[in-house]
Amino acid sequence: MADERKPPPTPKPPAVKPDDGQGAVVAERQAAKVEPPRMYQVVLLNDDYTPMEFVVMVLQEYFQRDIETATQIMLKIHHEGRGVCGVYTKDVASTKVESVLAAAKRSGHPLQCTMEAA
């Protein structure tokens, strides 16, 4: 004879009592306090080897600066050792730093770009 086993009985769901409206709970919505994202400055650092024209090109291409603004920022970097290119959210600032460093490396320039909390 074959050994036949019956599966265990499935439990029955608990009986649902009809809601008579007694004990109903009303939840109030609380306004979520959302803070704006933290901002970061993208900073170019001066060195003695990167041409000024390359710095101006970087400011125009990666930071959408016009020629006059890019030249002013480049001169500030040249004279003061550093200059702020823009203020962005963390992800955008990080991407811009990586893009500038990659462009400088491709062109063979030691230009340094960093980000810091604004």
3D structure, described in words:
It is built from three helices and three strands, in the order βααβαβ. With 118 residues, the protein is of the alpha+beta class. It has a three-stranded antiparallel β-sheet.
Notable features of this structure?
3 strands, 18% strand, 118 residues, alpha+beta
Distance between the termini: 82 Å
- Radius of gyration, in Å, reads 31 Å
Total number of helices: 3
Which strand-content bin applies to the residues?
15-25%
The profile of the biggest β sheet is: 3 strands, antiparallel
Oligomer: single chain
Compute the number of strand runs: 3
Structural class assignment: alpha+beta
Please write the string of helix (H) and strand (E) elements.
EHHEHE
Helix content: 25-40%
- Low-confidence segments: none
* Main β-sheet, spatial strand arrangement: 2-1-3
> What is the mean pLDDT?
90
Note the overall shape: elongated
Gist of the model:
With 118 residues, this protein is α+β, with helices and mostly antiparallel strands.
List the helices and strands and how they pair.
Elements: E1 39-45, H1 52-63, H2 67-80, E2 82-89, H3 90-107, E3 112-117
Antiparallel strand pairs: 1-2, 1-3
